[in-house]
Design brief:
heterodimer, A: alpha/beta, Rossmann fold, 2 domains, 6-stranded parallel β-sheet, 10 helices, B: Beta-Lactamase, Heat Shock Protein 90, 3 domains, 5-stranded antiparallel β-sheet, 5-stranded mixed β-sheet, 11 helices
Chain lengths: ~220, ~325
């Protein structure tokens, strides 16, 4: 039987010890060392290279992202299995992009942990159910949520104000009509200049006419 | 009193007025300036010297419309004294008091810019303190209690494997389920206190996550549009932007009964602009102003010298716009 050499990087000693005691009872898994930070990890890697390295993303003041990049730069053959408390997409996508081979949530039980170790040591990838849901969505729709339109996005209020500017109303007049302060109108006006990339009122009026943003 | 005494008294009076640490302007019943000191020019941001303005109508000055309106109504309509606080005029904040004097007005102007700056700073420190405490608590739960629960779960698993009595296995499975529920609660509370992605990535990632989560679980569609990247703003501002949007979303979710919410977050040359609107039933803005949520947003926006505007009409949803100036 081929033994899978596993190393554990986690800043909680209690958690490391717990995982080791569980893995010790598994016939084909051999926990070789554990570390609590980047420095220890890189030192231990000099002595003994694991097949699978289980890593937490939050390592106290340090980040698992940086450590993952450091490890994979030198030891491409190591399979990194992330064991994390984080459910948010950003963590999952970022660490997998960096080259981690699996992502498991810490709340998973020991059966899942053992299965994940075996799967990644075989060269496959392993994701918890929640993680694979996130990935499927990421692939099918991209990470960005649906956006309204590709053209310049003016807010409802900006369109309203642009309309009034195009109809030659002054800031105080617009303020009175919309029950807002002149300062607010002025803010909208400056935002509009920025957003439309025009220099002055004439530019805004031109844009409004071109895009049919007038009420007449 | 002799002529000389009179002249001395007048000179003394004039130098007193000039040296006063606040601005003073007197006007007659038609609004013509009868007396003003240099501080009043300085505070109002007017060019030139005081004699250029004497005998001219104050309503023709290049000063804030709000102030002119108050002076006008005080002179011609209600005749009551007025007191404008923290009026924003050309980079300064002024307190302006007007009182009747003979048949005209005496206007006092006090520069409170420094006080306002200190107030804004105090507000921001307070908000920042709250956020630090939230972050600390969230971290404690997420990085302390969370892993401890995971470990308990693993230990119970280990025991479970050594037992082949069915009813005990069943009981252990129940315990495991309870642990999972508590772990979920801890995760949700920690996330509500401070989303990890807001700290580890930035406001754009955190908002993307929030929007996705809403789209997955709620019956309405949330659209999010931004031209920004994570960490392009100071952390403190990013935190505040996130909280503001969160608050506006909470309002929409709780009261609007909408089918669609649009969020825009744009970095422009001089400002961050954000808007949230929904297509729900709308709300009574005057009433909501008294609510804590809207008040919180006001406080946050004000401390960054921003503009917050919210309006609504029955059946036409709520439209909130915020603009926060940024230094380039």
């Amino acid at each position: 039987m081929k033994m899978i050499k596993v190393a554990i990087v986690d800043d909680h000693k209690m958690f490391r010890d717990g995982v080791i005691s569980i893995l010790n009872e598994v016939d084909d898994i051999n926990p070789i060392w554990s570390a609590s930070n980047s420095k220890e990890t890189l030192e231990l890697l000099n002595d003994q290279i694991p097949d699978v390295l289980m890593m937490d993303l939050s390592l106290g003041q340090e980040s698992g992202f940086t450590l993952t990049s450091q490890i994979l730069e030198k030891y491409q053959e190591i399979k990194i299995l992330v064991l994390s408390m984080h459910h948010e997409d950003s963590y999952i996508i970022h660490i997998l992009e960096l080259g981690a081979r699996g992502y498991m949530l810490k709340e998973a039980g020991s059966d899942e942990m053992i299965r994940a170790i075996r799967v990644v040591s075989n060269g496959d990838t392993y994701y918890s159910k929640h993680v694979s849901d996130v990935l499927i969505k990421h692939i099918s729709s991209g990470t960005r949520p649906k956006s309204t339109t590709a053209q310049i996005d003016l807010t409802k209020r900006e369109i309203e104000i642009l309309k009034l500017i195009a109809e030659e109303f002054s800031n105080p007049e617009i303020a009175d009509m919309l029950y807002i302060s002149v300062r607010t109108v002025d803010t909208h006006r400056r935002n509009l200049l920025d957003k439309l990339g025009v220099k002055n009122t004439a530019g805004m009026v031109k844009y409004a006419i071109k895009h049919g943003i007038t009420s007449s | 009193m002799s002529m000389q005494d009179n002249q001395q008294a007048l000179d003394f009076f004039h130098s007193l007025i000039t040296e006063l640490p606040f601005g003073i302007i007197t006007i007659n019943s038609e609004g013509l300036v009868t007396l003003m000191n240099t501080n009043s020019l300085l505070f109002l941001g007017l060019e030139g010297s005081t004699d250029m303005y004497e005998e001219t109508n104050i309503l023709s000055f290049d000063i804030s419309r709000k102030l002119k309106n108050r002076i006008k109504s005080c002179l011609f309509v209600e005749k009551n004294p007025f007191h404008l606080k923290a009026l924003s005029i050309k980079n300064r904040f002024l307190n302006v008091y007007a009182k009747r004097l003979l048949d005209g007005l005496v206007i006092n102007i006090i520069d409170v810019t420094e006080n306002i700056q200190m107030r804004d700073q105090a507000t921001q420190s307070l908000l920042f303190g709250q956020e630090s405490e939230r972050k600390r608590l969230a971290k404690e739960m997420h990085d302390g209690i969370g892993p401890a629960l995971s470990l308990i779960r693993l230990q119970v698993d280990a025991v479970n494997r050594k037992i082949d009595t069915e009813d005990i296995t069943q009981q252990l499975n129940n315990i495991i389920e309870l642990i999972s529920n508590v772990a979920l609660d801890i995760r949700q509370i920690s996330h509500a206190l401070m989303p990890g992605s807001l700290i580890d990535f930035g406001v754009v990632s955190a908002l993307n996550n929030l929007v996705k989560q809403l789209n997955d679980s709620e019956s309405f569609d949330v659209f999010f549009d931004t031209n920004m990247k994570d960490n392009s703003l100071p952390k403190n501002l990013e935190l505040n932007i996130y909280r503001i949007i969160q608050e506006l979303l909470n309002n929409a979710i709780k009261y609007s009964n909408c089918t669609e919410i649009q969020i825009q977050l744009h970095q422009l040359n001089h400002a961050i602009q954000l808007s949230v609107y929904d297509n729900g039933v709308g709300m009574d803005i005057e009433k909501s102003r008294e609510g804590i949520g809207i008040n919180n947003i006001h406080t946050r926006v004000k401390s960054f010298r921003g503009v917050f505007e919210i309006d609504s009409q029955p059946g036409h949803g709520v439209n909130a716009n915020i603009s926060i100036p940024i230094k380039k």
